[in-house]
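tool_call: predict_structure(chain=1)
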Amino acid sequence: MNRSAFQKLLAMAAVSAVVSAASVRAEETVKVGVLHSLSGTMAISETSLRDVLLYTFDEINAKGGVLGKKIEPVVVDGASNWPLFAEKAKQLLDQDKVAVTFGCWTSVSRKSVLPVFEEKKGLLFYPVQYEGEELSKNIFYTAEAVNQQATPAVDYMLAEGKKKFYLLGSDYVYPQTTNLVLLEYLRSKGVPLENIGGGFRKEGDEIVSAGKYTPFGHTDYQQIVAEIKQFAAGGKACVINTLNGDTNVPFFKEYAAAGLTAETCPVVSFSISEDEFRGLPAKQLVGQLGCWTYFQSIKSPANKKFVDGFQAWLKTTKTPGIVKENRVTCSPMVLSYDGVYLWKKAVEQAKSFDVEKVTAELEKGISFDGPGGTVTSQKNHHVTKNVYIGETRADGQFKILKEFKGVFGEPFLKGTFKAAAAK
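tool_result:
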């Protein structure tokens, strides 16, 4: 054999070895998608979900993985660009061949990827509070439905003697639909239309929009805060806040500058958790309210294990781009964590990563004792979980004021509440 032929044989053997090694790695791992905004206006919220997912995968991998396979995360950036989310979803399913994806924050991003997951028969776990009125066979909503956040918050404010409700949100489907449900709910509780602020838009005799809306990234809240201050002048008023992303920062700064306080006109927010409070003037917002299915301040062994584990992981992870200082945990992070463990248990019960088989197990009802309490998957692809009302403290944490145990997730509420006589 001449030297040239021998070198060709060596080269072929090397290629074969590389292919063989790659094949072995593929057999030893299962690819899992992470689809969140790591840049743009929603990065303030979504990067933490990327982080907690990577922590969860490492935690599971350290204990042997799933069905003997280590989780191999495939992280992509939706970049707060809703059409791009759909393109990234196609990439994860077609190119990366992921077994499951955990991702999205805004409803518009979820609705962008929904047809992709349905067409390609993928599986998405969605972890952030949303407006309901949707049920896809290819999505599991660990997220808070309206009856697991918005209506319990209104019930609490009514019990506290509030008579007037100003509706404020970002201009997209989640706030708009949620506020239409809340309009019906408030009227069913005897709150007259004149005590519901933010404005209405009608088509004929039907109200098709309720509340005041601003675009993503909006920064000028002077006029809106002045309107809220006037609305609250008579007392017994509150704000129902469904603003999303970094636009909460200028709103609350303007609110504080106007002299509004939790005593004069409390704000109950559905998209501000401990994580977002890191970028807000927390000391000026003591006493403001949040309603979630988890707070970091929950006292339980499961939560202590989760918080301590995440903090320890932050110190040791070598993943680039992860902020390690002043980190907290929050409800969307926990619902992401819960989702991974529900999927893991479903895979193990199905003895398969096949989406249809895994979905069938989830629909039977799988429980996991998570940091916020026990969560159980439902046949309607939502999750039963505890609900908490919390009051913000100067350190950016929440003091838990009330707990609702084992609330069943009900996505279809619009049109179910009938107006009652005004009180």
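agent: Confidence is low (pLDDT under 50) at residues 13-24. Proceeding to next step.
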